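Propose amino acids for all 355 sites.
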């Protein structure tokens, strides 16, 4: 019986893959001992969203999502010795950016629950792609971990992170059970008027639900009430340096949350481009319209034609970017929702951005 362990940094990507015996690293008591079962376990401090790809009816079938709390496992039963793939990302209940545990195999997926056919184009299924991890079919246990290897204390680390996500003071997420964590959890239960006899699973569910509700009131939420799809970029200070990032596509009558941390003191800025439609078939569309700037002295940041993350806001052209004016966001509140309409966009003087 073997365990395959995948680790991610606090940004994204795999830092290392290290096999180990399940006897040494058996994640949790919830591991299924059936030799035909593939266990997927979470030893991180994050609630994870899990998508898998296994053979079903003779076809590779990616599907998701299953929610997996810290310190727990889920089980799959793929055909013996058949290909298997998995993708994990942190659930949006957490503060900060989405963390991903990725591989190199591109399979179809969606933001919402999905079942895909890997023999067909993702575009024809109205799906996007994710980079899945390839798992050795002989490995019975796949375990997701962080640089801080919490191991059997992952459930405590998960409680600590969710308490922080709910606005409680947790100075360090270390997975070590202690009086401070216990007192803070008791305060949460008291504040929410919850029964003290809840099981571990019920406690996690209560923390997740409360964190989801809190997330709706913090950060930056952008809604698209215009007539075309829009693309959003943000800029904010990262420690002592500016960082601009994009793009978030937002369909008509849909919303996205490009910033999930509190806006208070973050000095965040917003840029958006409205996609234009070609007037006739086989003709090029007009340049994207750009977000109107409502301040007399806008700050300029770097943006790219494709997905980008740019440090600093100087010498944009020298680094392959364009400098555009961003709209400042409030700095004295935790969160805000901005609804953009056609009136918020204007025709640019030069070629539009966002390709």
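Proposal:
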């Amino acid at each position: 019986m073997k365990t395959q362990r995948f680790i991610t940094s606090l940004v994204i990507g795999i830092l290392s893959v290290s096999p180990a015996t399940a006897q040494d690293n058996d994640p949790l008591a919830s591991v299924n001992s059936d030799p035909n079962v593939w266990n997927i376990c979470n030893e991180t401090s994050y609630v994870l969203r899990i998508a898998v790809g296994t053979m079903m009816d003779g076809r590779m079938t990616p599907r998701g999502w299953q929610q997996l709390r810290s310190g727990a496992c889920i089980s799959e039963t793929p055909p013996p010795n058949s290909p298997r793939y998995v993708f994990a990302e942190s659930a949006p209940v957490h503060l900060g950016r989405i963390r991903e545990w990725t591989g190199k195999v591109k399979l179809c997926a969606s933001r919402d629950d999905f079942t895909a056919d890997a023999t067909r184009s993702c575009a024809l299924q109205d799906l996007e792609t994710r980079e899945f991890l390839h798992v050795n079919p002989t490995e019975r246990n796949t375990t997701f971990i962080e640089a801080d290897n919490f191991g059997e204390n992952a459930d405590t680390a998960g409680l600590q992170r969710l308490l922080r996500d709910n606005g409680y003071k947790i100075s360090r997420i270390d997975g070590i059970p202690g009086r401070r964590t216990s007192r803070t959890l008791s305060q949460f239960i008291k504040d929410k008027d919850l029964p003290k006899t809840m099981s571990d699973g019920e406690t996690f569910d209560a923390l997740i639900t409360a964190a989801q509700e809190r997330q709706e009131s913090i950060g930056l939420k952008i809604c698209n009430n215009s007539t075309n799809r829009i693309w959003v970029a943000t800029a904010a200070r990262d420690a002592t340096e500016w960082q601009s990032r994009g793009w978030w596509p937002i369909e008509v009558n849909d919303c996205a949350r490009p910033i999930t941390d509190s806006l208070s003191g973050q000095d965040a800025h917003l840029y958006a481009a409205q996609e234009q439609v070609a007037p006739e078939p086989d003709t090029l569309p007009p340049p994207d319209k750009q977000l109107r700037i409502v301040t007399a002295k806008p700050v300029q940041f770097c943006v790219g034609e494709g997905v980008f993350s740019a440090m600093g806001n100087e010498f944009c052209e020298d680094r392959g970017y364009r400098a555009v004016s961003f709209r400042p966001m409030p700095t004295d509140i935790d969160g805000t929702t901005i609804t953009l309409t056609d009136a918020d966009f204007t025709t640019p003087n030069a070629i539009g951005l966002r390709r």
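The two ends are 47 Å apart (CA to CA). Residues 2-146 form one domain.
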